[in-house]
Structure formats: structure tokens, C-alpha cells
Amino acid sequence: MEPDSDKFWYVHSCDLDVNIQVKIGTLDGRREKPNYEDLLKDPLLKHSGLHQAACSDLYVTCHVYAEGRELTLPVRTSHKSFSSRWNWNEWLTLPLRFSDLPRNAVLALTVYDCYGPRRSEPLGGSTISFFGKHGVFRQGLHDLRVWPNCVAHPDNTPGKVQDPGKDQMQRLAKLAKKHRNGQMMKVDWLDRLTFREIELINEREKRSSNSMYLMVEFPRVEHEGVIYSVVWWERGDQAEYDHHTSGSIVRIPDPEIALENLQESKHHRLARSLRSGVTDRDLKPNLSIRDTLHVIMSTRPPSS
């Protein structure tokens, strides 16, 4: 597999012999505790992780499905003791290569909890497709809704669903995807502040939700410092997919960009006058600035 000039890697039927990796992140949300009637019906609940006051020892299993059938053996996270939050932060290597991945492959994630001696019960499950609607392999972080008390299956546990009470979190996820795909302008210092605020908003939304959310991360393909997108394509396939190779930002030349900004200059003068004393707080423009302002005010607007 060779990278092309449009920053895409194409998956062929015999290329890219690299195993797929998925990172299991955090599990957030509200978990329901068993009531008194459930404890009477099943006394083992008292010794299960569901009845613990702190975070119980959960683990996650990963399956790969295609057309309703399992393609690989399950892969699970290692044992980890949690204190106040379920956070695995672990990369799992799936026994499947990129070249062997079908177009409709789905990743199924099931969270299990200890129920008794040599017994575990599913806390919930969720699924997500490896490729998007345009055939591009998913990248970055994704928050998946966990369907309670069931094993993950592509037919009944979709991870990407519309939650009526979480419109803000879903809207921010779409904007973050546009930023990652280069469809939004990137400003380093502003991006750090913005994404930190997005993380705080998502944490508040997930903690106040009645559902649970599992965060997973798909790897990025990087070659010589350039990030590429993995696109599904098979030899002999005539299907075409639309890919946006550039952002939707239109750059317009500004002839006044090298001129002085009168508002910023005035602001800096007033800010310095606050430190210099009371007499300079009512600082007025000098003759040159006044003449410039008169010229601007007397200029007629362009006719439409």
C-alpha cells in the first residue's frame, strides 16, 4: 500500500498486513443499583460488583462482526483496579488485519461485571462500524452509548444513536470531527482551550445522563509526519465514494490587513492610561488619528 497525494491510504485485498488496534477509554454515566426485592430474589447480588459502593472491577470484550457473524475470537482488557472512575486507557490488538476487514465490519464492545465465583454478567453492550458512510476508516475518540444488561450485537445495540437530552454533546462531536478532517481553521492556542472545554461539557453531560457511555479511540495512520485516512477499496469494485480532500474554508485577500487597527491602538492607549494615572484616563485622539477618523466617516459606502 502506497500513500497518494490526496492523503488517503487505500485498503486492497492483499495489502496493509497490519493488525487493527482499538483503545478502550473511560466508562461514564449513572449505574442503577439493585433494589431490595432483587436482593431477596437473588442473594448473590450482595457479593457482586453491582452492589459495591465503589467502582467494581469491570472488563471489556471486543468482537468483530460482519453480516451478523463473528469474524474473530474475543479480545478483552486486562485486570485493573478502579478507585473513583472506570478508566482502562488500554490499546487492544484485534486478531484481524486491515486487508481482511470487510466494508460492513462492526466492532462489538461488551462490558462485564463480576457476579459470583467464576461467573460474570453483562453490564451492557455497544457497537460501532469500522468504516463511515463514505468508506473511510474511523479515527479519533468516539462516545458510544451502552445498552444495559445485554451483550453487544450489531442488530440491537447501536452505539451512535440520537439521544434527545444530549444534543449539545452530539453537536460538539460533529464539530470536533470537522476540525479533525481539516474543514475548520486550526489555531493552536485556541484549540487547546476549546477542546478542554468540550471535555468538561461531555463529562458533565455523561455524568448527568441516565445512560452509560463508553469512550473508544481508533488509531491514526501517520507517515513521515503526515496523517492519512484509510479508505476501503477492493480490486474490481466500481463503486465510487466522495471524499473531501480539502476544507470548506474560502480565503479572501484583505487589502487592509497591513494597515493599523484604530480600535486596537485606542484600546492599548486606554489600557496604559489606567496604569499611568487618573489624568490620562480621558485620553483623546491626536490630530493625525482625528483626521483619519474624519476621512473614514466621510467615505461613502460602496453601492450595491
TrEMBL record:
InterPro entries: C2_domain_sf, PI3/4_kinase, PI3K-type_C2_dom
Taxonomy, superkingdom: Eukaryota
Biological processes, Gene Ontology terms: autophagosome assembly; endocytosis; phosphatidylinositol-mediated signaling
Signal peptide coordinates: none
UniProt-listed Pfam families: PI3K_C2
One Gene Ontology MF term: 1-phosphatidylinositol-3-kinase activity
GO annotation, cellular component aspect: endosome; peroxisome; phagophore assembly site; phosphatidylinositol 3-kinase complex, class III, type I; phosphatidylinositol 3-kinase complex, class III, type II
Domain C2 PI3K-type: 36-181
Homology family: Belongs to the PI3/PI4-kinase family.
Protein known as: Phosphatidylinositol 3-kinase catalytic subunit type 3
